[in-house]
């Protein structure tokens, strides 16, 4: 299996964590020709990352990839067998993808003070903080989000929080985690797979920013 990804991508990190937790062999490569290029879009029409190639088939969108991995490789299931817990995993992962992460991503356009629109930046930061606080109400750490073992929902959030820890100080703010999220984050980041991949993501993001974000 080939995974088209970039180390700075939180969604790529999410899929990499899932692949390694499930023990699936894969090779990570940058998208052929680059992100959203005509060459890459011959294979992945939306031009997005991550995407996977298995033989002559291409699958994109991180949540679709995650579901495919659970179907294709049932070993070391990240969803488990309990229907309610499976639904909660999916709900929390969806919360990350739709309600939380997009507000952080939209701050990228304001990293350069020369082109920053402060009112827009403040709105995105405020909403990210509100959604992060709302997360406190959505799960009870056990110590992971749904169960005693790390699972599907736990793959989504670590790289996003790491990215927030990098970006917020640039804007004069600090990431504040509530007590439940803090307990979950400590337990999740102690997992060697999560730590390795988020460390790589952190380093790549810092290098990208130091190079001017080009």
Largest sheet: 4 strands, mixed
How many independent structural domains?
2
Count of helical regions: 8
Quickly give the CATH architecture of the largest domain: Up-down Bundle
Overall mean pLDDT: 96
CATH topology of the largest domain: Glutathione S-transferase Yfyf (Class Pi), Chain A, domain 2
**Strand order within the widest sheet?**
2-1-3-4
CATH class of the largest domain: Mainly Alpha
Given as residue ranges, the uncertain stretches (5+ residues, pLDDT < 50) are none
Computed CA radius of gyration, to the nearest angstrom: 17 Å
How much of the polypeptide forms β-strand, as a percent range? 5-15%
Order of helices and strands: EHEHEEHHHHHH
Give the distance, in angstroms, between the N- and C-terminal Cα atoms: 29 Å
Helix/strand-derived category reads: alpha+beta
Question: What gross morphology would you assign?
Answer: globular
Number of DSSP E strands = 4
InterPro entries: Glutathione-S-Trfase_C-like, Glutathione-S-Trfase_C_sf, Glutathione_S-Trfase, Glutathione_S-Trfase_N, GST_C, GST_Omega/HSP26, Thioredoxin-like_sf
Protein name: Glutathione S-transferase
Domain GST C-terminal: 82-207
GO cellular component, one term: cytoplasm
